[in-house]
Fold Beta-lactamase family protein.
Amino acid sequence: MLHVEIDPAEAGFAADRLARIDRHYQRYVDEGKLSGFLAVIARDGRLVHVAKGGLRDVEAGTPVEDDTVFRIYSMTKPITSVAAMMLWEEGAFELKDPVERFIPAFADARVWAGGSQQKPMTVPAREPVRMWHLLTHTSGLTYGFHYAEPLDGIYRDHGYEFGAPQGVDLAKATDVFASLPLLFEPGTEFNYSVSTDVLGRVVEVLSGQPLDVFFKQRIFDPLGMPDTAFGDADPKRLAALYRPGLVREDRMGQLGLRTPDFLSGGGGLVSTAADYHRFTSMLLGGGELDGTRLLGPRTLRLMGRNHLPGGAELKAVARPTISETQNDGMGFGLGFSVVLDQARTKTAGTAGELAWGGLASTAFWVDPAERVTAQFFTQLIPSSTYPLRSQLRQLTYQALVD
């Protein structure tokens, strides 16, 4: 359960200003824009404020509660990235290693050179897809749901829009991804993609374990995250999924109730606010929480550096398909967005802040300078519908008064 662990004033927050968070998002509920919400703010790992309201299931009339389970979609990606870097710390790979060393299907990668969805033209890749390309979405892979390039349509033609065709596991899906053209030469641009799914497959190959087993044994159990898993959520606690106008989306929503064949390291997990708070607290703690260390602090600092080509901002190298962060003033590290220039972002926050979000409008950030972590949960797709994330930053930092 979620319990405030420190008086806001002691943590440097004004309680009356924190209450603005509750009122702001309750208006979204009252206006029929959100079914419900849960926001969690912490400093130095201790909960300062919990705001919740509305319903986890509008049709059933059941409220959002502390233990409500949410589909976190792309908030799975930082977990997969941490898993990979745990293996990196063990010497299992180097960041410059070609992915083909672990997934041979990537050995003959080809790059899109024109043509159409039906008749693509390709050329051999000059640069292999490397491990750091997977961690930074600079691999040249894509997503079928982008609807931005002919290559996205080729992914859809193979059955990869959201997730994978029924009966296809992660190993088979990864070989399919490797057989399709790359959108650009690896390491030259940023395109949000199935890169983290491929990274999850590398974790399986290097560890000799299915991704769900590795996550449970190496991350979830050690950190105390009992409700985080690839589906199989308690139907009584799982929030319903909605589109704008509170149109219920059961086709996608039902996927949270069973364990899928395709263990998507890019978007397959369900979780709770309490569980993800444990994960973000570990990140804030430099890889350690309550005596359990997953990563060394220097590894976390490396992950929090901007790894985009030439040290560029996302704005300079990203294809216009990403909706989990803005581009101005932002870089990308090994699994997270990174604030480079707060003034250019035109949002509250601090340089060095790590963050990411998910398709259903969930989000988190970790601010090492202010020692603040924050999470927001709801179940509205797509995540670009309302400026929920930037508004939570405003409302959180205006309440920080020390």
User: Anything to note?
Assistant: Residues 134 and 195 are 5 Å apart (CA to CA).
